[in-house]
Amino acid sequence: MRILSIGEAMVELGQSDQPGLWRLGIAGDTLNTAWYLRRLLGADWQVDYLSRVGQGAFSQQMVDFLVAEGIGATHVGRDPDREIGLYAISLKDGERSFAYWRDTSAAKRLADDPAALDAALDGAGVAYFSGITVAILPPQGRANLLAALGRAKAAGTWIVFDPNLRPRLWTDTNTMHQGISDAAAGADLVLPSFDDEATHFGDADPQATVARYLALGAGQVVVKNGGGPISFGGAGGSGVIDDLAPETPVDSTAAGDSFNAGYLAASLSGADCAAAIAAGHDLSRKVIRHRGALVQQAVAEKA
């Protein structure tokens, strides 16, 4: 009953309600999902994070944050030469843009040691990672991670992948296409976002996204759609959920990450695909009513 989330967490600078002031926090796509999973799942589930940080104060703040939030930090490695990355969020009409300082992020080395990857994945019921996780890694680290996930899958771990396409993290479009496709091919569940897939893979509609990932070898695909109808296909059946309540975002940060957590928590609790989609959408629309990636109020907030 253990989930291992794999990726890069960074220091987050977000605009506060007071002009000219910024909020400092810790966030990152796979950490955001782990944080929401920790709050949605009962005590029977352990949620761990696998990453790499430096040895300075901000890196220690990230580790302390994980521990304080109930997320296991045993598999967060320490790098003597690199530090945790940083990003800042700017908002306009509820939509976000980012500035990053991550070129020397220690997380780029999170998959350097295959034995450490195997140890972290050993016994995990679920392993969760994203397109950002694989994008930041050098070619050998990427190969190490996908090989370790393949071994874990063979041992019974459920592999979950969000493509989370970020072209500027990749050397070129072809490398991005290949890296994302390789990661998705070994996943039991893929959770793409249609706007990204249409822009970077040329998918005509969400059903095309479902079909492409299933053809690669994914077991199940659920396509997020910016609050619009959600298409799904594969092991959990197929269909379109088109009666989801809309929401005007205050801040769209972590919309997809929180959807993934809501979907996974519902699935792990026995919900079918349609019910899990409804749960993911419900959490996501609550999160985007507030500023920031990690919104405690959203977890308990009524619809």
From TrEMBL:
Enumerate the GO terms in the molecular function aspect.
kinase activity
Q: Pfam families, alphabetically?
A: PfkB
Q: Which UniProt keywords apply?
A: Kinase, Transferase
Q: Where is the Carbohydrate kinase PfkB domain?
A: 5-293
Per the similarity annotation, which family is this?
Belongs to the carbohydrate kinase PfkB family.
> In its UniProt entry, what is this protein called?
Sugar kinase
